[in-house]
Fold this protein.
Amino acid sequence: MNIESVGPPAVIAEAGVNHNGDERLARALVEAAQAAGASAVKFQTFDPEELAAAAAPTAGYQAAAGQGDAQADMLRRLVLDRDVLTRVWRHAEALGLPILSTPFDLESARFLVGELGMGRIKVGSGELTNLPLIVGLARLGPPLMLSTGMADLAEVRRALDAVAFGALGGPHARPSLEALAEAGRSPEAATVRARTVVFQCTTQYPAPVAEANLRVLETYARLGVIAGYSDHTPGLAAAVAATALGARVIEKHLTLSNDLPGPDHRASLEPGAFAALVTAVGQAAAALGEADKRPTLSEWPNRAVARRTVVARRAIAAGETFGPETLAVRRAGTGLDPAAIWRLEGRVARRAYAAEALIAPDELDDGDAAE
């Protein structure tokens, strides 16, 4: 999964819980992600009993999608147990598609990293303030990717301090807010931040485009992290704009059908639209080009066609004085630049010119102005 400073951003297909607990659907999502050109596919791994209290309600968008009132009941329907996830994982690997899963507890993370060999750990927006979990995840070794939906900048900074503490403090260092802050101020923390992805995210499904707040990506870049965008808005525009603002990772939900039952399908892209997203993000990255302004390779032939040059307005005799009645600027621009007309005025022609003929460059040599 390419998140280096060159090339197009990595595009993660967030399968999430769109498998609805069905292994066949999970495998189909992997195949759809691979066919669409995604850089990776990602699921979610959690223990429903550990994640949500019995009385925790569903979010408004989840209830509207027919998921009932109890969050724990919904989560139980959306679990992929470890044996199933392992088979799905190996299926993705057989297809050559990198696969990730967001852990919501430390035991799940240990399984993903230790048993399945996951190389990066994604932290969901809801866990950004779960600093004990972030410290534990950072201690596992792989670099972290933090989603920041619902957060303010102080909370993002505190989470990055937790990442630094976990990565640098050793397995037995005692955490505290003060110790986390100290780790975040250490010179070594810059190295940890440089390999940490921080996603701008708006936690709503779907999220209003006007609330994407993509300029936060510029703020994240100044923090010394890898800026990314986890997109919950409809369509492709926000992801393309995020690419233009420097996002190195784009994450977007993938579903096989927006009409499937489940909490996230309506805010997800179907396979054809996801393939269009991958193409659009790649094109946006290519369109950025370089900061140096110069003619492109394809433009060079058109300079001679579109630009103007200095020509004889009418036939000019040798020794005649150049002036507005004898000179014009017309296409095609293969001779003197139009600004040369200012220097030519008042000079005498060294040779005769037919009407429309290009004025020779040596007419600008010193010593030829009329007395």
Q: What stands out?
A: The beta strands are 10-16, 40-45, 99-103, 121-123, 144-147, 197-201, 226-231, 249-253, 308-312, 327-331. The longest helix spans residues 271-288. Residues 135 and 331 are 67 Å apart (CA to CA). The radius of gyration is 31 Å.
